[in-house]
Amino acid sequence: MTSTEEHELNALVQLFEGRNFARLVAAGKKYTKKYPHNGSGWNLLALGYKNLGNIPEAIDIYQFLVREVPKSAMFLSNLGNTYMLIGRISEGIHCYEQALELEPNLINAIEALGLAYLEIGHKDKAISSFKRVISIDNNHQKSLYYLGNVYLTMSRYQDAADLFQKTSFGFSKSHHLECLYRLGQKELFYQKYNKLSASGTANPLMASVVSHASVRFGVPDDNPFCSSAFDHIYVGRIEESDGFNDGLSKKIIDFHHGNKNDFRNQELLTNGKQSSGNLFLLKEDFAQELKKVVEGKIEQYRALFSNSRQGFLTLWPQNYELIGWLVSIESGGHLDPHIHKEGWLSGAFYLKMPESSGKDSGNIAFSLHGANYPTDGKYYKQKVVDVNQRDICMFPSSLFHSTIPFESEEERISFAFDVKPIN
Q1: Pseudo-torsion of CA 83, 84, 86, 87, nearest 10°?
Q2: 77 contacts: CB under 8 Å, gap ≥ 6
Q3: Where are the domains of the chain?
Q4: Helix axes 172-182, 186-198, angle to 10 degrees
Q5: Measured between alpha carbons, how far is 312 from 397 in angstroms, rounded to an integer?
Q6: Fold (CATH) for 230-421
Q7: Structure pTM?
């Protein structure tokens, strides 16, 4: 590589590190035309496309690189990462496995394989993957965090707490707070919470735990994310005038039934299916049309609550992405109470609703209680919201929500979404 070629490549790296992805794509195109045999240049161009949401272009480049440089574990791993973004889980796993045959200690591929195993419900394999990363690098922040999350789902709260104390990645501090709460360490829980709150931390996970504790312990809810979540539930309609017609609805439902991508494992869902990946990143026309409609409704929500002083509105993220997925539920099915810890504002658009088989059946229910948190026998109110086909419901991501079981020959199909902050 000449000094000029290396200098221009470093300029691409700086654009990537500075998150100037549009400029990276423009410069990357010129670079790869000038230096067509430089794999690093192609890789950076693909990363630019991926971060701009142009997944098909990124996949084309990585497939090209894998063909041209079949012995590159990094390119295989990056192709796997891109497949995962749009729910092609089995292809992602295949790429990671191939990468690890070439480079057994490639940490990024081992960790990504662990996350992919979680998507299909293979916890034991996921645990092995994260432990393998930690055996290579005992201070690897992400794998410590991911392993802690798995232990949480297994009710291994002390093991999870120990891991969360070793990492500062993601919501580790809020998860540690959650572990203390589950372990009944009230005094230490509030000490840690006051410290977190004073540091300016505000996120859905911390809010949900603190709001739950306010009822359990009979103390005021002063969490900085949202302390009046019930007052910020919104239900509206999406009509043809919003840019959404029956034809678009049919395309989305047909895509879901066609099972072009893999369904993800969802332990909270009974008698139903949930799509994997981010549907807003798909090349299908319906994805981009629906994205415009949802973006418009989010702005309407913000305008409606413009006078609210709740943190999730006053601290609205400057940079965020929309994450979307489909959930279909059949007769007798339901979705257990949960929050969206990585969201900010969450919502659901109801594409198909079965005829009511009883009071509230198939509706969405909200509560401050969920996740099997200890209640000490305290009463947690529930608010059931009636939803119909073409309704859109939006709410703070910290609020526990669930689907009430129903009996019907028809499916219940909704498109769920999150506003997810980009750090």
Answers
A1: 110
A2: 95, 96, 99, 106, 108, 109, 112
A3: 172-228, 230-421
A4: 160
A5: 9
A6: Jelly Rolls (2.60.120)
A7: 0.94
What is the C-alpha separation between 142 and 169, in angstroms, rounded?
Answer: 6
C-alpha closest to that of 395 among 180, 218, 230: 230
pLDDT, tens digit (0-9, with 9 covering 90-100), for 48-81? 999 998 999 999 999 999 999 989 999 999 999 9
Amino acid at the residue 197? S
Any idea what the Cα angle at residue 79 is, between residues 77 and 81, rounded to 5°?
A: 70
Query: Tens digits of per-residue pLDDT, 338-377?
Result: 999 999 999 999 999 988 767 889 999 999 999 999 999 9
Measure the CA–CA gap between 116 and 112, rounded to whole angstroms: 6
Lookup: tokens for 295: 């973006």
Helices 107-119 and 73-85 cross at an angle (nearest 10°) of 30
Q: Terminus-to-terminus CA distance in the chain, angstroms? A: 34
Cβ atoms of residues 326 and 375 within 8 Å: no
Q: Which residue has the tokens 């394989």?
A: 113
